[in-house]
Amino acid sequence: MSNETLQAVKGMNDILPDEAELWLWFEEVIRDWLASYGYRNIRMPLVEPTALFKRAIGEVTDIVEKEMYSFEDRLNGDQLTLRPEGTASCVRAVLQHNLLYNAPQRLYYSGQMYRHERPQKGRYRQFHQVGVEALGFDGPDVDAEQILMCARLWKKLGLTDVTLQLNTLGDSACRQRHRAKLITYFEQHSESLDAEATRRLHSNPLRILDSKNPAMQALIEAAPKLMDELNEEALSHFAALQAILRQHDVAFEINPRLVRGLDYYNRTVFEWVTTRLGAQGTICAGGRYDGLIEQIGGKPAPAMGFAMGVERLLVLLQEGGMALPRSKVDVYVVHQGELASQLASKVAEQLRDSGLRVLLHCGGGSFKSQMKKADSSGARVALVIGDDEARANEVSVKPMQGGEQVKVSVDELTVTINKFFKQE
Ligand code: ATP
Ligand code: MG
């Protein structure tokens, strides 16, 4: 057996304690932000039946064709997939538990997603999303709400250079008409299509518009526009959404080429984009998916949602100069001798009872080396306990930023320490 060090799976990251502080802080901001709009948390499994994603996302999409971690459960033959996104699972859970029975739902989830992509900065095989879904709402008010939510979050996070791209995909009748015209158009120019576009020509011609191949850009530019096929209802929905955004001074750019990589969207689609992350510039994306609930087997109901890429957002924050928040220890307890150690662990528990963060030195060592650890822990106060102190039921309190060391009886310790922190 080889004993070389094992590594994490490629494209899947460890988040080490220093960075995890930033994640914890971010998660707290997110929780407060979502609560302020009345969205409630839902938690789904990381593994779902493969059929769910095939049906929801679409067979001819990048995700289903080449990015899913799918496998057979050898013990019972089930076909399973690590979730590549959360909307399908969320809708499945809502239907399975009948949550739309008598009220619409505003829901959110966060956690790991899995896609077998080529790892690079801002693109990983395990990554995290915060997903937000409003089910049972036909908009455009809720469409606007979700976009305003995002704008508020960027402001809260101090992100200034993210811009909003907006488009409408119309309803299924408009899309059918557009699809037919696209096929005719691309068939007429079949000699200019690359292999991928040729393959998708009849299965998913809309996705050709999403191609990043420079050689096809002129062809795509001149292709029939969905905008020209939109019906009255879809147009007025889009106009009303824009009006609300203008009322709130949320700037946007209409991007007719924004089609999104999943099949289930209709009407409103949007992306928040930054130029600071290269090709991985989309930090948040979403849209309306009025047909999905029925497609997954529910009674038809409209819905709208979006997901943010947490890694991309955190990189943006760090590149913007945000310092890593570091949670501090209040007290470091230094001790030497058997009696002293007993007292040390007793006072540490006593101080924790009053809500303080206490690091009890473990592993022995001289007073000097323990004080060094106290210093680098960031604690504001060290308690120093030797056997002499222990016999007198006292501890020495040493402010780490300078100041006099004082002896305090164990009974008065909690009061003294809390007073000290209040004065600071
Ligand atoms: P992209 O065009 O960058 O591949 P996407 O359209 O596949 O994005 P969505 O499915 O809309 O992405 O997911 C929402 C968000 O999740 C994206 O805007 C992005 O911020 C983040 N995201 C998607 N895939 C990855 C990944 N492989 N690694 C890190 N973040 C990702
Ligand atoms: Mg993608």
- The coarse overall form would be elongated
Q: How far apart are the termini? A: 57 Å
Largest sheet: 8 strands, mixed
Strand content: 15-25%
Average pLDDT works out at 93
Low-confidence parts, pLDDT < 50 over ≥5 residues? none
Strand order of the largest sheet: 1-5-6-11-10-9-7-8
Q: Oligomerization state of this entry? A: single chain
Give the bound compounds. Answer: adenosine-5'-triphosphate, magnesium ion
The helix count comes to 15
Give helix % range: 25-40%
Q: Which class do the helix and strand fractions yield?
A: alpha+beta
Radius of gyration: 28 Å
Task: Please report the total strand number as a whole number.
Answer: 16
Summarize the model shown.
This protein is of the alpha+beta class. It has 15 helices and 16 strands.
Task: Report what the structure shows.
The chain is α+β, with helices and mostly antiparallel strands and 424 residues long. The chain has 15 helices and 16 strands. The strands form three sheets. An eight-stranded mixed sheet has the order 1-5-6-11-10-9-7-8, with helices on both faces. Helix 1 runs antiparallel to helix 5. The longest helix is centred in the first third of the chain and has 19 residues. The chain is elongated and about 95 Å long. The model has no long low-confidence stretch (mean pLDDT 93). It binds adenosine-5'-triphosphate and magnesium ion. The site of adenosine-5'-triphosphate has 18 residues, from strand 6, strand 10, strand 11 and helix 11.
